[in-house]
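FW: tagging you since you asked about this chain on Friday. Here's the raw sequence from the shared folder, copied in full. Didn't touch anything.
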Amino acid sequence: MDIDEKIKKALENKALDISPDDAMLDSIKNSVEKENIYMKKGFTAKKIVALCAAICVIGAVTAIGSGKVVSMSAHSSRLDDIKHFPTQAELSKIIDYSPKYVEKLGKYDFDFASPGETEEKDADGNVVDKYRDISFWYKTDGGILTLGTKPDTHTEEKNGEPIEYKGKTLYYDSIKYKFVPPGYELTAEDRELMDKKELEVSYGSQEVELKDNASVVWTDSNVSYCLMDMDAHIPKDELIAMAKQVIDSEN
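HL: got it, structure written out here
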């Protein structure tokens, strides 16, 4: 799977691990759907990697619920990808926080790191927060495995099954994503599963695809982390063990 395909699939995975209000969710969906159209038309220079809605916006419920932040956008360019395993000294020139990350995550080798920039805006379009972030991608036989990181800018709730580890709370969650073409009409089963929060539907693909998504999110030393498995089908215990490995690593 090349980088274009990886980014495309990450773009399609939206609103992970947060419970935004309707306005926030609509904003995220619209941004992702528009970007899917850009990708199909070949606007590679305009890749807007909406990891704020997919990987690196980790449970910003409090800020959203307070009415301060109503939309987010994340920008990234493949020209900035780091193809070698970076040092903290290299990262310090890109971001202003020190994330933990590992060269081998479980049995999966490091592939590349992707720096980005995220903006959070209020209802009037004013920038409430702006920060540089970075995600680390790992090689798999299929699907996506990525460790998203960002500065912990909010005191927030997180969704998922809580797991206590060394004084930290990790949250595991899994959900199916159904990617559908524009104009797709939701079935009664779709609506039922969406009401149960067992399914998310994303418009913009060329055909109907069903993908499994699992994630572990946590905060450590003012850095938010989201370890995401999208259709790589990594067992729950293994994914949680990877999160613990990152916590145990030295930054």
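FW: Residues 22-41 form the longest helix (20 residues).
HL: agreed, and The CA atoms of residues 24 and 70 lie 5 Å apart.
FW: great, closing this out.
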